[in-house]
Amino acid sequence: MAAIPQARPPPRSLSCRDFPMTLSETDLDALNPGEWVTDDVIDFYFRYLKHRYFPDNKKYVYISVNIANLLTERPIESTSRHIRDLASDANALDYETQCLRKPRNIRIAFLPIFGDGHWSLLVYRSQKHQLPEFLHFNSYLGSTRANHTQCARTALINLLYVFRENDPDMVISKDSYKLVVKNCPQQRNGNDCGVFVCMYAYILSSRMAARESEGRKNAIQSIVRRFSGFSHTSPTPSDRGASDRLLFSAKNANKDKIEDPEEAAWKIKDRDSIQPDDMRDYLIKVIHRATIASKGHSASL
Predict the structure, then answer these.
(1) Which residues pair with 125 in a beta bridge?
(2) What was the pLDDT predicted at 299?
(3) Which of 119, 186, 209, 271 is the most core-located residue (most Cβ within 10 A)?
């Protein structure tokens, strides 16, 4: 008598505790070495960074993959009808955060760019009394620079159109920006681009959060000095021991040229980088810590 085949268990899904999103086993499998990271993993991690570092700070925005794809794939047209339809579609996709409706509040926006079979990171950076600046971090500059930079340029121009439609008082146009292609750590294969996008976003987000914290601390200390007259002591270094933070290798900072701290914060050097497989392991751990497994499975490590 033939054995009765055993039914396969239903696929496991992981529901995020802090924001409405579900990941699948396919998403987790895509974090194995040699695999392409899925859209949902990048979306999850961007939302995780927002929740971890800037939960109540509307100056920092993480654009979803769906909105970034809309901005990248929609042809650039300057007609009023096209811009109105583009903004309407972007606002509809942004139903949860509604951050695009008030662009004047945005200081920094992270956009995951996909085009020409490749992921990269585009960062919008507003500047007082200056043109907005877009920083493009591309982990595969050698063979994709021209085509993929054009994808980023399309996305940023369409983003500016959305901003102008949502806030007509903003003086912006498709020519009122600066695009800077940043030198940054490069991938050594054809499948780690999504991992590098997450790594770039992590490094920059953690730096910006540290600067925000330092700024608040200095402001408080300034008030205390003003009213107390006590001497000021240097702030202690911030705690880097959080369980889901990666530690970068320490180097002698005195070897570097003295430069503007604001500009230095936007540079990602090889010494700052994280090995792709280590970043994959880290993403898996973050997902398990931030989710609850369905079907009776435990999501903890």
Answers:
(1) 108, 133
(2) 34
(3) 119
